[in-house]
Amino acid sequence: MARVFVNGGTGYIGRPLIESLTGRGHEVTAVVRPQSASRLPKSCRPVIGDALDASTYREHVTQEHTFVQLVGVPHPSPKKAREFVEIDGRSAREAVRAAREARVRHFVYVSVAHPAPVMKAYIEVRAGCEALIGEAGLRATILRPWYVLGPGRRWPVALIPLYWMAARVPRFAEGARRLGLVSLEEMVGALVRSIENPAEEMRILEPADIRAWARNREIDALGRKEQ
Known about the structure:
Blueprint: E1 3-7, H1 14-23, E2 27-32, E3 45-48, E4 65-69, H2 81-102, E5 106-110, H3 120-136, E6 140-143, E7 147-149, H4 160-166, H5 170-178, E8 181-183, H6 184-196, E9 202-205, H7 207-226
């Protein structure tokens, strides 16, 4: 059983991740604002606090925790550059500070694929957060999806044939792999596997790695059922 501390547990990835973790027997604690507490899965322990201020929750973070940082501006767009700094950047900076002070066993961060031709402000903030994690000396897993397909977020499915063709053209193959699409189920699966298999130092998962890790988690689950 892992002890997991989640920052961003009421969001698009946070809720299904918590449900998957607690369903597998892990103990999950999540930071939540008072007005959002009802949106957390009932299976986790809420800590009333502010994701933008580590002083409101750091006493609940211990050395035994895997800290999962998921806070981010919903539906990122180039118009939200200031919000990326004030929410994504600040919450990650506070999370890294709390994790470093507690000497957590593992830090998991959802970043974004880069470099990329668009969303430069978003990528700049996320890359800066990755640098903070490295400077803090944390054992960490960083996942770099480009776009996570799921409920209400299906429009890029139409691009899948273009990705398939680009991956077969040497000039575009590397970019197509780096900026590939992953599903919400694959993202949650890769996160669970990352939590259950802590990194020794710094581990980076690109989209192809995320899909592979999700498949391996399914294999692990089948193995446990057969035993």
